[in-house]
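RECORD TYPE: inverse folding
INPUT: structure tokens
STRUCTURE:
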């Protein structure tokens, strides 16, 4: 009995394709945008990445920058004048102060 071994070769017909990039990972400031990168045969079938040239593999993520993030803004300190009145409860034994 003769046993025959078939070796799979990398072919030049395999391509690396990628999907459109996704959204940025943040809504403001700096983030990362990712996309799917796949090794595909000439018949448009997904194959193992070992059949595509790793040197030609496109990047699958890159930095993105969205609009500046909102931030707090402070003003100067100022004096506030309040009118207060004291309300006492003789039955409960406590007093409260209400200010407007």
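DESIGNED SEQUENCE:
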């Amino acid at each position: 009995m003769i046993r025959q071994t078939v070796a799979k070769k990398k072919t030049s017909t395999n391509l690396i394709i990628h999907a459109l990039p996704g959204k940025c990972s943040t809504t403001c400031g700096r983030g990362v945008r990712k996309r799917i990168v796949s090794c595909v045969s000439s018949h448009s079938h997904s194959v193992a990445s070992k059949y595509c040239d790793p040197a030609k593999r496109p990047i699958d993520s890159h930095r993105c920058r969205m609009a500046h993030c909102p931030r707090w803004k402070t003003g100067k300190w100022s004096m506030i004048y309040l009118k207060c009145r004291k309300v006492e409860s003789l039955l409960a034994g406590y007093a409260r102060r209400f200010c407007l």
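NOTES: The longest strand covers residues 84-89.
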